[in-house]
């Protein structure tokens, strides 16, 4: 796509009120596979952010008054443009984020699916009439857009985390200010460019790029014109933003970190469990929030599972995401590599058995060799901290209750997985897991059709499905009297 080609290596502007804004300074966006700078992007600050909020605020009344079929058609056109430019968007995503091209294409499809879904769902944003408490009164419940939405998103899914918020927000009649992750602003800007091409009016969608997120975040969380902050990212940053939002009592949605358990019971189909394990653990080099962090495997099946998993993990091809056949790309930055190495070293120093991997890969300093650790115990850092890398630590358990207790023994509650065949065990386990999402004999669960989100310190609110639309609406109760 020509506009993407032009951007690379040049100063890419941000989007404020329908205008492309360059800013006084720029910051570099690097390719994590090579360390090369692929583009420079506008460095915006507090003043620019206030302008973006003002633009969204001013665009709000017209957008919400636009007939729903028209809003829906514009979103549908945005979906089509993203789909038409899928190859270019995927390549851009691989360049700035590192994920293998096939996964990047998958993310474009997944990201676009939210726009397609919410373009339709907008038409079903219904209110209610309720039985009245007086003969001369009628009770109505109107469902209205919440207003200006700030969407603050992470680098691991540079497109889907944006569309999962913006599509329902725009569908509901809200306007948005996006603050993409500093590592991956290009995909966000390309998506916004296509939104304008699709005909979304100036100011309905704004993108504020910044390498110092706190300054922009301060405005987005304290400006009273912003009525909802929808954040996806780490739990510490989410807690900080929640606290900041308290000053103006904003609605919030927090999609935060996880510590996903993946339980394999004795009666599981071990080959299916290994397939699920590979999909759940090694997608995006282990950098997904719903990624398995801990494998909990029952005694009777433990050795078979570890041996089959190790065999499959050894075969995973590591390399630049643009190279043919790569399935494990680089980690996002050096700090990520250091954290993964620390988790492996800590486990091994406390007696874990290294089955494969365990160190950086010859492909480059940002690449970590897919790793399996056996005989892992709950004293090790991998038990409590989100590793966010291609490391599969395998814990052992004997009784079902022990697995449930281990699985729930975390402040997080995003996704959990388990493999079993006995139907009583399946029901008991499904109900006992304190998680927002559970995969039963399934390692990949994300879809625009279902509510995505966590409990406990993994967050507040849901994205996707009709619940995802409700998040961007307010109820207004109207009592019509004197009839
Ligand atoms: P992060 O919290 O460091 O950053 C997320 C976003 O917040 C980025 O845009 C960043 O610039 C911004 N940010 C950071 N400090 C800020 C501040 N003070 N004010 C305003 N914005 C600020 O997270 P990350 O490293 O980009 O992403 C990885 C984390 O995200 C992991 O913990 C992962 O589990 C989580 N995640 C969760 C989900 C989910 O749906 N639950 C999805 C993807 C990622």
Condensed summary:
The active site is at residue 255. With 483 residues, the protein is α/β, with parallel strands linked by helices. The protein contains 16 helices and 25 strands.
Separation of termini? 61 Å
Shape designation: globular
Poorly predicted sequence stretches spanning 5 or more consecutive residues: none
Query: What top-tier CATH class of the largest domain fits best?
Result: Alpha Beta
Strand content: 15-25%
Question: How helical, in percent, are the residues?
Answer: 40-55%
Give the helix/strand layout:
Layout: H1 2-7, E1 11-12, E2 14-16, E3 19-21, E4 25-30, E5 37-43, H2 46-65, H3 68-84, H4 86-97, H5 101-121, E6 128-130, E7 138-145, E8 148-152, H6 160-172, E9 175-179, H7 185-198, E10 205-207, H8 213-222, E11 226-232, H9 235-245, E12 251-255, E13 260-264, H10 270-282, E14 292-298, H11 299-314, H12 334-349, E15 353-356, E16 360-361, E17 364-368, E18 371-376, H13 381-384, E19 391-397, H14 400-408, E20 412-413, E21 415-419, H15 423-432, E22 437-440, E23 455-456, E24 459-460, H16 465-470, E25 473-480
Parallel strand pairs: 1-5, 8-9, 8-11, 9-10, 11-12, 13-14, 13-21, 14-19, 18-19, 21-22
Antiparallel strand pairs: 2-3, 4-5, 6-7, 7-25, 12-24, 15-18, 16-17, 20-23
Helix pairs in contact: 2-8, 3-5, 3-7, 4-5, 4-7, 5-6, 8-9, 10-11
The protein binds nicotinamide-adenine-dinucleotide.
């Amino acid at each position: 796509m020509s506009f993407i080609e032009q951007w690379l290596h040049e100063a890419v502007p941000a989007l404020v009120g329908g205008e492309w804004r360059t800013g006084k300074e720029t910051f570099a966006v690097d390719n994590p596979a090579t360390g090369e700078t692929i583009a420079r992007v506008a460095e915006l600050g507090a003043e620019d952010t206030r302008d973006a909020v003002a633009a969204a605020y001013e665009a709000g009344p017209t957008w919400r008054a636009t007939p729903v079929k028209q809003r829906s058609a514009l979103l549908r056109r945005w979906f089509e443009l993203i789909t038409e430019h899928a190859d270019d968007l995927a390549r851009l995503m691989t360049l700035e984020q590192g994920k293998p091209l096939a996964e990047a294409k998958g993310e474009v499809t997944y990201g676009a699916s939210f726009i397609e879904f919410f373009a339709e769902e907008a038409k079903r944003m219904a209110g209610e009439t309720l039985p009245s408490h007086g003969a001369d009164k009628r009770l109505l419940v109107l469902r209205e857009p919440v207003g200006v939405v700030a969407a603050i998103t992470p680098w691991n899914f540079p497109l889907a985390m944006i569309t999962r918020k913006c599509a329902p927000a725009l569908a509901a009649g809200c306007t948005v200010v996006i603050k993409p992750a500093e590592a991956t602003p290009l995909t966000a800007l390309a998506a916004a460019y296509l939104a304008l091409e699709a005909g979304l009016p100036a100011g309905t969608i704004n993108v504020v790029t910044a390498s110092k997120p706190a300054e922009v975040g301060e405005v987005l969380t304290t400006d009273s014109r912003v009525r909802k902050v929808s954040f996806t990212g780490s739990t510490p940053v989410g807690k900080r933003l929640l606290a900041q939002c308290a000053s103006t009592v904003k609605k919030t949605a927090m999609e935060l970190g996880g510590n996903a358990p993946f339980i394999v019971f004795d009666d599981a189909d071990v080959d299916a469990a290994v397939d699920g394990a590979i999909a759940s653990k090694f997608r995006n080099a282990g950098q997904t929030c719903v990624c398995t962090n801990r494998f909990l495997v029952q005694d009777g099946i433990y050795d078979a599972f570890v041996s089959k998993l190790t065999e499959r993990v050894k075969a995973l091809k590591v390399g630049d995401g643009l190279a043919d056949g790569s399935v494990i790309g680089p980690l996002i930055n050096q700090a990520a590599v250091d954290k993964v190495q620390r988790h492996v070293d800590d486990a091994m120093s406390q007696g874990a058995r290294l089955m494969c991997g365990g160190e950086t890969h010859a492909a480059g300093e940002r690449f970590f060799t897919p790793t399996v650790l056996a005989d892992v115990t709950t004293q090790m850092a991998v038990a409590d901290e989100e590793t966010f890398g291609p490391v599969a630590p395998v814990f052992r358990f004997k009784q079902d209750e022990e697995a449930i207790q281990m699985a729930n023994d975390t402040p997080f509650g995003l996704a959990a997985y388990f493999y079993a065949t006995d139907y009583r065990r399946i029901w008991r386990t499904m109900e006992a897991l304190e998680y927002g999402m559970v995969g039963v004999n399934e390692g990949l669960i994300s879809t625009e059709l279902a509510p995505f989100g966590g409990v406990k310190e993994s967050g507040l609110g849901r994205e996707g499905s009709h619940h995802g639309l409700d998040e961007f609406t307010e109820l207004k109760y109207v009592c019509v009297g004197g009839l």
